[in-house]
Design goal:
TIM Barrel, globular, homodimer, 281 residues, alpha/beta
């Protein structure tokens, strides 16, 4: 199954049977004080640099989130979309809890972006899916609802099913719903990653859709986070994830190594080109 | 299923449902000139250090191989077994192409070692399985035969089946045959790792036995070998491998991270203890 994202002139296909799609996570002020300050000061040059560095490191799509205290998202999200589009032409992943901010950003985003995110909460379904339909975009759907994040894979699968169902009834194509099975830190719950991996397998088997992961939470609070994140990504791709929101400067090499090992990179050409590019950067 | 290895006083269980067993690969002169020289000069202190460093880094079993030009294996393998046993008490993995050297080493090895290895070649089956039976050990069985290494997983599965069959008919217990699906470099064949991963899945499903991997070949000739090896280990454990012959100084952290992510490490205690030990070493 393919989820087609577009920028002004580029197309990126998230594919269940293809190479993994890398979404750069760094334009997000959560835990990044310098970016939060830059957003408050409207230092757009800082944001341009963040965008370019990530594309250079292998990001094929860029997540754009401006949620920080003192920042009016409805105004700033479209501004940052324009900023990123002024220096690079990759499809965007519009990331906000505020549906008005998303609507404002959608008005100025060329092509077909990914919306980040809807989930099974009634208010989210009611506010986000109409935007997906109206702007004919794709959307990331988190497997949580008004009851919270279920502890077992079957319940997460059921939420994924309800969101897909609702989307399809509204006329959104199944392939435009990218399921995110959510991952919590294994530092707090030894089953956290196992449940996510099992959810990936179940969702792939049941619905055949693309699956996205936010891949840094899993190691929160633990030492050697890079090692844990690398291992988790490989386990996730082995289970069937096809798209990841991550730090491409830290994890692109691991992601491309997984594509190579999973037989998706003839003679390692893509991996070798990437390593050469990164080493010369 | 459990494969129980023993040293003089310790027991190590390779378990299909448990944490991964780490076999230290470094007492093997192939590609290690210093060790080859040490063996020729009978510099046993060098070997003791290699043994201790690996156990310190997380090895639970040590592979012992003395195959180098100018070294008489039948004499040296028992000598090195005694050397390793003089400084540490982990079970051993006796690694030789020479069945007489293995027989001589088995005479001086306490407990239940692992023999590395038999395969589907007639001469190997005839020379190695009788030793496994006589000394009541476990054995690594490579999925190749007189025709070479098959390119497809089903053919490797068939060889695994034939070896297990032959072993069982001789009175060797199934759980004492640890299948090694073999891995070639993805630099030469883009399907090399995929075929290995699929073989792991098939062998686990069909026979339920433990599966060992030599985990360094896969990246031969490529840059960023550590990244590729880390990713491959995670993919392999996700597919069902339970035992690995590797460099514990480079890869123990990744292996323990995988156990943590696969829900086999309550509150990450084992991972955290390992990281602390390695950082203080």
């Amino acid at each position: 199954m393919q989820t087609v994202l577009k920028s002004k002139e580029q197309e990126v296909r998230i594919e269940t049977e293809g190479t993994v799609t890398i979404i750069g996570e760094k334009i997000n002020p959560t835990g990044r004080k310098k970016l939060a300050d830059a957003l408050k000061k409207k230092d757009f040059e800082f944001i341009r640099k963040l965008a370019l560095r990530q594309v250079q490191a292998g990001a094929q799509v860029l997540d754009v989130n401006v949620g920080a205290p003192g920042v009016e998202e409805k105004v700033m999200l479209p501004e940052v979309v324009k900023t990123v589009n002024s220096c690079t032409d990759v499809p965007l992943c519009l990331d906000s809890n505020d549906s008005e901010a998303l609507a404002a950003a959608l008005e100025v985003t060329p092509g077909t972006p990914l919306i980040n995110s809807v989930n099974g909460e009634k208010s989210k379904l009611d506010s986000i899916l109409p935007l997906v339909k109206e702007f004919d975009t794709a959307v990331i759907a988190l497997t949580m609802d008004d009851e919270g994040i279920p502890k077992d894979p079957e319940a997460r699968l059921a939420i994924a099913g309800r969101i897909i169902d609702r989307a399809v009834k509204m006329g959104i194509r199944t392939e435009n719903v990218v399921i995110d099975p959510l991952v919590l830190t294994v530092g707090a719950d030894q089953n956290a990653a196992r449940v996510t991996l099992e959810t990936i397998r179940l969702v792939r088997k049941e619905f055949g859709v693309n699956i996205n992961l936010g891949a840094s939470n899993v190691s929160f609070g633990l030492p050697e986070r890079q090692t844990i994140n690398q291992a988790f990504l490989a386990l996730s791709f082995g289970a069937g994830a096809s798209c990841v929101i991550t730090d491409p400067e830290k994890l692109s090499s691991t992601i491309l190594a997984c594509d190579l090992l999973l037989g998706r990179d003839s003679y390692g050409k893509r991996f070798l080109t990437h390593i050469r590019t990164v080493q010369n950067a």
